[in-house]
Description:
Layout: H1 8-11, H2 22-44, H3 54-60, H4 62-74, H5 100-104, H6 112-124, H7 129-140, H8 143-157, E1 161-163, E2 166-168, H9 177-190, H10 192-196, H11 209-217, H12 220-227, H13 251-254, H14 276-292, H15 298-306, H16 309-313, H17 315-318, H18 332-337
Amino acid sequence: xxxxxxxxxxxxxxxxxxxxxxxxxxxxxxxxxxxxxxxxxxxxxxxxxxxxxxxxxxxxxxxxxxxxxxxxxxxxxxxxxxxxxxxxxxxxxxxxxxxxxxxxxxxxxxxxxxxxxxxxxxxxxxxxxxxxxxxxxxxxxxxxxxxxxxxxxxxxxxxxxxxxxxxxxxxxxxxxxxxxxxxxxxxxxxxxxxxxxxxxxxxxxxxxxxxxxxxxxxxxxxxxxxxxxxxxxxxxxxxxxxxxxxxxxxxxxxxxxxxxxxxxxxxxxxxxxxxxxxxxxxxxxxxxxxxxxxxxxxxxxxxxxxxxxxxxxxxxxxxxxxxxxxxxxxxxxxxxxxxx
Length: 340
């Protein structure tokens, strides 16, 4: 308008206008969508179920909880022998010379026995003389005797029962383990253990790694996954809980877990079920890079020219009989003003 020397009123003179309140329209749109969302949420709810917690585990399956905690002390659980990034007790996954777990080292140090059992019990032993004595006995005993206690207690837990929220085992020489496990079970059932395993020294306690590792060592969490069809052999990562569809884009990853050699204990070319996670990540990285490089790869980039599927989709555009667009009739008022 300035090069023409015209004001806004002069520029739009003769052009039909209507009032439009953008704020009003936006408010109406947000309000309408909000009402629809609330109605749909009230009628259909959400496919998600409440988060699994240590408290729920200890309350619903105390025998499995105590069995898992005893395994942490004995060093027989999955996390105890996992390897990096948590400890050096396992070799980790590798494919030939490719071993990123070893390269990156122990970045999240977790001692299963200390983190999941001893440290939480130390926090409440101040007000519990019997527990303090039991912990002192455990520390002063050699590893051989500790192993005998955990072995005997683990065998007794195979036939243990739960009564009034407590675990009942047959009489035997278990040392201080019954007192320690009873206190840990009480912590778990009260919800205190959930909070203790999230303490990370930061203002916001959002590190769920220890709690998830502890629950993953037991059978309760995997039982919940099986109930909701979330196991790996059920294409778990791409499912929502129940029968709801999930993140379908994850099938690119989960599909590999359903076919050889990733399902085999032997496999070929060094690929098997023990290093499936690592090899699948490498495979998907290579395929993703190849997809991004399609315009640069001589043969792949020519496929659309050899197989012109796009011409079928855009057949109206590529049609030789496509009519020319009809020119619009210029507005007389604009024509009088000249070019802008």
